[in-house]
Design goal:
679 residues, mainly alpha, Serine Threonine Protein Phosphatase 5, Tetratricopeptide repeat, 40 helices, 0% strand, disordered N terminus, DNA-binding, PPR_rpt, Pentacotripeptide-repeat region of PRORP domain-containing protein, TPR-like_helical_dom_sf, repeat
Length: 679
DNA sequence: GTAGGGTTAG
């Protein structure tokens, strides 16, 4: 696997930018074709270089308007490198040409490149300055905002956009005091300044100020009401949002945007599962089958209204109602199709999803990705592969879905294959990729690969809770329990039960009973609520450590204190606990009273204990049950035979051996609860 | 043809 990481490093060294954007944009780059050839197994789209097809002299003299139009079109369609080539080859440029290029880099967050152009540009206008400031603002760090502020303070003249950009910059990183100072000192405010303050307050949870500003603002535009409503909803103030809509929704000034506001609220109700109220709002919007085109200024349902309502039904798992609306729509967009397809993929009706997908006019990458994850959910790797191969444009989510799908379906080698291919094709893994690959390492019990991925994690992403959980699980499964504990101890946020389950489970499987129980106590003290998984580990620890009373106590506490319904795994552990204390009758009684069907672990625990405590009668019951559950397994025969031998019951032993031969049972080593040494 | 604030999905 070392070559995998080396490949990744090489890609990053050759072109850190292209490693991010990959083949999607097919930019010309000298190092790229070689890498593509390495990985070209037929699934990689062919590369077409457009740089050579652009005549160098195509933009001369007064044709600046066409040049600028061309560049902005290339940037809008994601072809930044092509735009740069056109820019470099142009004989004449004006400030708009430069600004467009700066804008392209700002949109991609490639600040160093944007700044280089900005510094090279002699005839800067106010837009150049505003663009560069917005570049720093969009990076949301305090270091960047200071640089943005520096430009703002030093620019020769400012317009309203400059002020608004700075205000929203402060608002986004929670520095509302500074936003307010700017707002109060700006010479002239626009409706955007007010809207920026309102969203700023709402992003920072200051609901009352947002409402106050909304009511105080001298004029409102299309965005004002929607900004307030969506912000209120994000703050969990759904009823307040509803009240605002009732109060302001009928005012003429907001009328043109009323659909927008209604749509926001419909989505808000949907998020909270309040489908009926959402439908009530939806029904209040006039429906004109011939109209509904956005921008006609009338208050009537548009495609987003339909999509939002369908989304509510999909979230509430009411696919029939969702489909009913979908079929009624006169004009659908990609979103409508995708949400309906994902609705079917989720109830797990991939067949119906496929039917819709095949009827869809222009499936986009998200549609293909939905079909991939749907196929994975029903365990069909072949179908997922088929979609993956056929899709015209793959993105990071496509790769992640394949890797996660292979991992979930326990085809770990397949997952590694896709991960390797992904790196070779220049797609940069994100935290989702790395988390899946760590689970792959756990599945393969491959510490070496796991450590390499850990290194990749350290270099590429800030480890979040799920990544740390995956690391803990990986290290503990690979036997490095101390390394797992180090990661656990270094986690600042310890409120996720999965982290605790991973660590306690790790201790449990390594037989560190004391540490497991200590951590379990600490977890409860920190008010992290244990789950049924926690109790499986805890009960197993009690069984292995022979802590009979503790085991009984924990089982009881799980049911009464935490209201967790015991599963067969808990009963298996409890039976084991009781058996280790030699109370076989009690164990048998427990098995008879179990609400679920006892499995091999339950009977295995009993049978193992029967041999230790020489209870032939119960051993026969347990062995028979095991033979029924797993007719091919030699384990119950072996154990029962050994017990007969221990007890000197030679006749029974011989009979059993004959039966075993008759049933063509072949002894297989490797059952942890079987001691076949004297067989 | 370039800059600032607002709805729906994984």
């Amino acid at each position: 696997m070392t070559y995998l990481v080396i490949a990744w490093r090489r890609i990053r060294m050759r072109s850190p930018d292209l490693a991010v954007y990959g083949l999607r944009n097919m930019q010309p780059f000298c190092g790229w074709p070689m890498l593509t050839r390495i990985s070209n197994n037929g699934s990689v789209p062919s590369i077409s270089f457009t740089s050579s097809s652009i005549p160098k002299s195509s933009f001369r003299g007064t044709d600046l308007h066409s040049l600028n139009k061309k560049i902005s079109h290339l940037i809008r369609t994601g072809r930044l490198c092509e735009a740069k080539t056109v820019f470099d080859n142009a004989e004449h440029r004006n400030t708009v040409t430069w600004n467009s290029m700066i804008s392209g880099y700002v949109q991609r967050r490639e600040l160093a490149k944007a700044r280089k152009l900005f510094d090279e540009l002699c005839e800067r206008d106010i837009v150049s300055w505003n663009l560069m400031i917005s570049g720093y603002i969009s990076c949301r760090g305090s270091r960047y905002i200071e640089e943005g502020r520096n430009l703002f303070d030093n620019m020769p003249e400012r317009d309203c956009v400059s002020w608004n950009t700075m205000i929203s910059g402060y608002a986004r990183i929670g520095r509302m005091d500074e936003a307010l100072v700017l707002f109060n000192s700006m010479p002239e405010r626009s409706v955007v300044s007010w809207n920026a303050m309102i969203t700023g307050f709402l992003h920072n949870g200051i609901v009352e100020h947002a409402i106050e500003f909304f009511e105080r603002m001298p004029e409102r535009d299309a965005a004002s009401l929607s900004a307030l409503l969506s912000g209120l909803i994000q703050n969990g103030e759904l009823d307040k949002a509803s009240k605002v809509l009732t109060e302001h929704g009928n005012k003429d000034e907001a009328r043109e945007d009323l659909v927008h506001a209604y749509n926001t609220l419909i989505a808000g109700y949907g998020q909270r599962g309040r489908v009926e109220e959402a439908r009530h709002l939806f029904d209040q919007i006039p429906f004109c089958p011939d109209g509904g085109k956005e921008g006609n200024g009338r208050f009537e349902r548009n495609v987003v209204s339909w999509n939002s309502m369908i989304t509510c039904y999909v979230k509430a798992r009411d696919i029939a109602s969702a489909r009913e609306l979908f079929d009624l729509m006169t004009e659908r967009d990609t979103f409508s199709w995708n949400i309906m397809i994902s609705g079917y993929v989720h109830c797990s009706n991939v067949e119906e999803a496929s039917k819709l997908f095949s009827k869809m006019p222009n499936p986009d990458t998200l549609s293909w990705n939905t079909m991939i994850s749907g196929s994975m959910e029903i365990g069909s790797l072949k179908l997922a592969n088929d979609f993956f191969e056929r899709m015209p444009q793959k993105n990071l989510v496509s790769w992640n879905s394949m890797i996660a799908g292979y991992e979930k379906n326990e085809d770990y080698k397949g997952a590694v294959k896709f991960f390797t291919q992904m790196l070779l094709e220049g797609e940069k893994p994100d935290r989702h990729t790395l988390s899946s690959v760590l689970s792959v390492c756990t599945g393969l019990v491959d510490l070496h690969l796991g450590m390499q991925i850990h290194q990749l994690v350290s270099k590429t992403v800030l480890p979040d809770v799920p990544i740390n959980n995956s690391l803990i699980t990986m290290y503990s499964r690979c036997g490095e329990i101390n390394q797992a504990r180090t990661i656990f101890d270094e986690m600042k946020l310890k409120n996720d039960v999965i982290s605790w389950n991973a660590m306690i489970g790790g201790y449990a499987s390594h037989g560190f009973s004391e540490q497991a129980l200590e951590l379990f106590k600490l977890m409860k003290r920190l008010k992290v609520r244990p789950t049924y998984i926690t109790f499986i580990s805890v009960l197993n620890v009690c069984a292995h450590a022979g802590l009979v009373e503790e085991g009984r106590k924990q089982f009881k506490s799980m049911c009464s204190e935490y209201g967790i319904e015991p599963q067969v795994e808990h009963f298996a552990a409890l039976v084991d606990v009781v058996c280790r204390h030699g109370q076989l009758e009690e164990a048998m009684d427990l098995i008879n009273r179990m609400p679920c069907e006892p499995d091999t672990a339950v009977w295995g625990a009993l049978l193992g204990a029967c041999r230790v405590h020489h209870n032939v009668e119960l051993a026969q019951v347990a062995a028979e049950a095991l033979m029924r559950l797993e007719p091919e397994s030699s384990a119950p025969y072996v154990l029962l035979y050994n017990l007969y031998v221990d007890m000197g019951q030679w006749d029974s032993a011989t009979k059993l051996r004959t039966m075993m031969e008759k049933n063509k049972i072949i002894k297989q080593p490797g059952y942890s609860w079987v001691d076949s040494s004297c067989f």
